[in-house]
């Protein structure tokens, strides 16, 4: 980040006047970037955290007023790998009661991946824990798409408008500190986290619901995003994209999770949990469709 | 988009005039760096992609006119680990028909490693997919050498001069999109990719050939670099360094590959495939020499 | 080399005067940062290596005169995972005589992690091999603490004052080149590396000793940091934090190590070796306390 060098340079040669101005001049979110400079183009921008970490991420500057910051992507690198290398949003340790929280990525400051590879690998940037936000947006983008094709190739995009994050300390990092993604912390349905109603920007509640298998459709209501769901066996999942559970077999429609899923362990363990329960991408029984199984889940803040 | 920060930074100190000039000032390759600023020293430089990702890599500014950009290194971290953690150019998933493309690194935008550690770990920078090039150069450098010793410690260096990349959309990322490194996409020898003649900068066709076992030497012709070779069982490999297959047991002289190698699976799976088929570094039968087994393969563009 | 870009940027706006100042303005360590600019605040700063790699890390600017640079952290992500993914300071290859040096992180230039996540993941920055130092400091900080809470949440902090690194080429990278962390390089106690006396900044020799199990306390003397210890079976460990071995069961009080630990292999293999020999965090027999088992070991240079 050569410009950082310049900034550091100025700072350390006591041109503190530049530094002060610079403090005003490094945006911490795409929302701030839009508000202050009125950028209207979707694409990659540089942001900085409160502690001075500079990183590049994608800003959606056009949807519903724009100012959406990409902070994470959940990508299934191997549906057949059950909590193996690359399952950074669940566990890379094989699935075991000894690692109830798995890798713990939902509530720690570990970062990984890059914005340009967000549909080819798991991605988590410092904005995930640094930005104070009110709402989230989610995109489902087929794997291995280039940044400038994400929006046009996506098949589902939605956002919340309830400012629900105000009740959870302003971001998912803090939400998941309050509601741990950890085996054994609660029961279904008593201890599910919030289900927030959605506004669809591409697709609708029906097309969203049809991404999942018929059996789990019968146990969910579409048009909501749910955080920290629990399943029958007490396993915890981070995000149920587009649905609100009415039953407890949530491993077939929720992504991310703790490190232990007791039922047929480790068959439900992985970034996309039990999406392949009745076959890979079959869309039959409990299995999700090929379309949603082979797409990354991009998570934005505003 | 890194211009945003520059814009911001400079606007805040009222030097917005420089923005335009700055746009001219970030080179995308070592070739451009050399052409515009006539640098003649091998070493680490900063480059920027079209999307504004700034990264540091090694430039060979002296060989055959210079301007060579290091974009990747293939390093075998554990010859005994068959598609285990660290096999980023093949598969970290153990080797299975379920992951025919393995980690997919040859044709995605995932990056890893650093230039300074390119002989101690796998390395892939944004130049791999961002730079438009015509030729490639390859160095074989013993593992764990420091940057300033790479050239003197290397035992084999060569480059192409045919501008073959013009026929494959300008880089290996695009070449491997056209010719997937994936189990089952073709047969041997029908579906091998291009074999390009070499100009040697250190070593020659004979010393190059002798790096591999006698059995595979009898099935290859030296003095070429081959891309996307197929073996008897239909497994795909990315690069055969210095040789053109005349037979089909290419897993003993090619590096990188898909995630599945049927013969004695997973014994041929890994960044250096079946280099140890007749023992580690023995140079006997099908086995490669210790020298090539314990050296990283550095890949340059120009 | 990053100055090239700066040069270009600034020359293009005719501010080449800044360039000269910039050359003076990139500190290579927190010590240099303190000496030249008299910073007195603990926190994150940017540093640059001789080769121009710019990175951010934590500086302790207050302890014993300040100027301490965080260069690494050893974090046990899964005490039950024996040389599995995340054991970057020992081996991610399962533990085997075939990988006697494990991942080799103690004596190569591979870097990983970030300063902000240094208590949630293994961390190694370019300062580890780039900085020329005389002494080390170590902090034990409970896992998953935020940077601004490290000091207050830590339960043990100490440093050396003997300038012992002058005898080992100025840093741990070079020390471990001289004294490899590799199975089979020596015997216990003949081939232990240096044991350096400590000055405690938080805690004392007794509280330090009590972090480990009673059996190993009986075989160690507290108040020293020991580098490259060997155990009964010839396995090598990198750092024994706060103790000097008088016996040979050092896998119960030393962190980091080679890739092979013969006794009950791979039960002693991992970033925190055999800390759980008599149960996880029990503090009974050979087992370490829960407090030290669930804390990252932060390593500083000065």
Automatic annotation (TrEMBL), chains A, B, C:
Residues 1-18 form the signal peptide. PROSITE patterns: FIBRINOGEN_C_2. The keyword Lipid biosynthesis does not apply. It comes from the Eukaryota. Residues 86-105 are annotated as: Disordered. Residues 21-71 form the Fibrinogen C-terminal domain. One of its GO terms (cellular component) is extracellular space. Keywords: Calcium, Disulfide bond, Lectin, Metal-binding, Signal. Residues 87-96 have a biased composition (Polar residues). GO terms for molecular function: metal ion binding; oligosaccharide binding. PANTHER family: INTELECTIN, INTELECTIN-1A-RELATED. NCBIfam families: GGGWT_bact (NF040941). This is Fibrinogen C-terminal domain-containing protein. It comes from Silurus meridionalis.
